[in-house]
Amino acid sequence: xxxxxxxCTYNGESYLIEQLESIINQTMPVDEIVICDDxxxxxTCLLVEQFIKTxxxxxxxxxxxxxxxxxxxxxxxxxLCSGDIIFLSDQxxxxxxxxxxxxxxxxxxxxxxxxxxxxxxxxxxxxxxxxHKTLFDxxxxxxxxxxxxxxxxCLDVVSTSxxxxxxxxxxxxxxxxxxxxxxxxxxxxxxxxxxxxxxAIRNKIAYIDQTLIKYRIHGKQSIGLGSLFKRSVxxxxxxxxxxxxxxxxxxxxxxxxLERLRxxxxxxxxxxxYNSLFLIxxxxxxxxYRQYYSRSCYxxxxxxxxxxxxxxxxxxxxIHMRRKERHYFNI
Length: 331
What we know:
This protein is an alpha/beta fold. The chain has 13 helices and 8 strands.
């Protein structure tokens, strides 16, 4: 099993060397590192070139002629990798020494899995653990969502919000043709979100409930803790674009899989609409839940619970705002 690392850089001079050293010093050595720089204007390129001279691991370094954005830059780096397993890497994190070994061991033990993501420790700009939450805590990979994942509802979990952070992921090279090329939709959807949904569609995704990297949070992040749907203003247009892309990923003869994917999106927007209770109740009474889920009543109950939580949060928000108005204006 050969191992590649796909790293993208852009003005990363502050933290790049520490990250490269953490990759070089793995207990299971990687076979190559592919670095694609997206037009850095600081000393990033110089640092990489100097690091290559002393690296005991082969490093391919490519400078883009123009800025193509982080999603397309990751696509380029991934396609240039030659390994059987490809690890995605940001320029500013720190890998634990046994990250590669543990993930490769997981792949060996689970030959049916093509895409893996893990938890991470959150650190500040100097690499010190100064937060009281892990990455899973922040993105919402809760005990409930882990349970849903383990029960086979992985598509539900990853298609409705960004639970997967690319900096923690690894993928089999054989899976790449199923998700690349990425659609060009104005960087509204990020590579990790799209890849995770592709893997979930095929039931090829899994998580490792361990912190295997230090995820650095600082003011110069290009992506940060973003979700699959980053800009609510364009969310309907984005959802339609992603659905059309996901539909093309499914074998045209697998009509049942295609219809189930459409239903997942339909549920996603129904739950978030103003008429959510009416819409999902109507879908349940028409038998759509029963058609696509073996535990239809349980899934419907989860959706109802989610709607009520959203409604209560909205009401509490209005009450809080009204109290502020009374405080400041003595209404």
